[in-house]
Amino acid sequence: MKKIALINGHPNAAAFNFGLAAAYKAGAEEAGAEVREIVIRALDFNPNLQFGYQQRMEWEPDLVKAWETIQWADHLVWVHPVWWGGLPAITKGFIDRLFLPGMAFRYRENSVWWDKLLKGKTGHIMTTLDQPGIFYWLYFGRPSVNQLKKSTLEFCGVKPVKVSYFGIIKTADAATRQQWLNKARQLGQRLK
Hints:
This protein is of the alpha/beta class. The protein has a single domain, classed as 3-Layer(aba) Sandwich (Rossmann fold). The protein has a five-stranded parallel β-sheet with strand order 2-1-3-6-7, with helices on both faces. A two-stranded antiparallel sheet has the order 4-5. The longest helix is centred in the last third of the chain and has 16 residues. The relative contact order is 0.19.
């Protein structure tokens, strides 16, 4: 049975991202996967890594539980909007607080190389946009994807990481949104 951590990074519970996450979860459960959700907006934690890596901040209970879910999972599915080309601040803060040296990766002594401590996991990013995904990729260079996929997940050993774009959100009618929900459900059914 595939174990999936479904991580929702939208700070607004009324956002379309919650519908995408629910559709993906329904499809994955239909396919026999076990899904545990992490809704970042609902967690009680300080998103500011206020000392950088110079001083350890103790994890709040919600972060401890979130990390246990990430370690438990075979597959990490991230659902988030793109704002100003990047991740919402609370999602970035969640990553800053959890994906720490010694936890998600380990620097090697006297080396520029590191050990990837999340090897064996796969990932999928489902992101909403107010522009076509191809435009975000070709014109802007998809900065949020590069940050989450390459600089975080793959840096820590999660591979492969697939990406699905959903947009243009602001102009989408009900029929288009339903097509996207169907697509999210199918992604879950295929356990991607």
